[in-house]
Amino acid sequence: MSSIGIIGFGRFGGLTARYLARDFSVVVSTRSDQRAAIEACGARAVSFETACAQKIVILCMPISAMRETLRRVAPLLSPDALVVDVCSVKVYPVQWMRELLPENVSILPTHPMFGPDSAADALVGRKIVLCPERIDEDQYDRIRRWLESKGLVVIRTTAREHDEKIAVSLSLTHFIGRSLSAFGARDLDIDTEGYKRLMHILGVVSHDTWQLFEDMHAYNPYAKSTRQAFIDAMIGIHERLDG
């Protein structure tokens, strides 16, 4: 049975541990004492060094903490290890992993397009993006087949193409949701189906941290221009109405 080490045990780290522990031996390292929660997932709480020594190491921390974590992880990895990240942006994490990890270590950047709420009960039909960067094709295929056996839809792409598209489908969506929250949007008895969809967007982002929101904009090289284009479009429509 393959051994997997997870670094970080936030909401997504917990979800990852729970699903992987059904098929693999999983160990988790986290700064806080969450031994009971980790064991409840079917995994074991271990030291940072032990988690980094596993055959596969999955990084589950905020994007803003990833670079420093990579510096700590790098000297502790096995020569044939595979390092996987789950960041919602890909261009910068790929650059950091290539720069900081040993050349004999394989790299598989990923972005699971689901979270603890949407995949609480099952993975079937959920999407996961894979950006094979430095990985043997046979190993990649084994991972892809396992993911597909769980019902996941696997999308293979490049880091750049991922970030360009996610700047719209994720960063912009969260920007709209946060704007609705700041505006004070709330459920109304006199509403429309369109308004209910807007409230759904607000609900989706309300469970995520501000740090995640800030990171997905700060570390996506295409997020700012996408956000500005949307704001310009709104201003143009607003001025047209006033005119």
Outline the structure in words:
- The chain is an alpha/beta fold.
- It has two domains: 3-157, NAD(P)-binding Rossmann-like Domain (Rossmann fold); 160-242, no CATH class.
- 51% of the residues lie in helices and 14% in strands.
- It has helices at 11-20, 35-40, 48-52, 63-73, 91-100, 137-149, 159-183, 193-206, 210-218, 223-242; strands spanning 3-7, 25-29, 44-45, 56-59, 82-85, 106-112, 127-130, 153-156.
- The longest helix has 25 residues, at 159-183.
- It is globular and about 65 Å long.
- The model has no long low-confidence stretch (mean pLDDT 95).
- pLDDT < 50 runs, ≥5 residues: none
Task: Give, in spatial order, the strands making up the sheet with the most strands.
Answer: 3-2-1-4-5-6-7-8
- Give the C-level CATH assignment of the largest domain: Alpha Beta
Tell how many strands the DSSP assignment holds: 8
Radius of gyration: 20 Å
Please write out the topology.
Blueprint: E1 3-7, H1 11-20, E2 25-29, H2 35-40, E3 44-45, H3 48-52, E4 56-59, H4 63-73, E5 82-85, H5 91-100, E6 106-112, E7 127-130, H6 137-149, E8 153-156, H7 159-183, H8 193-206, H9 210-218, H10 223-242
Parallel strand pairs: 1-2, 1-4, 2-3, 4-5, 5-6, 7-8
Antiparallel strand pairs: 6-7
A few lines on this structure:
The protein is an alpha/beta fold. It is built from ten helices and eight strands.
Q: Can you give keywords for this protein?
A:
about 240 residues, alpha/beta, Rossmann fold, 2 domains, eight-stranded mixed β-sheet
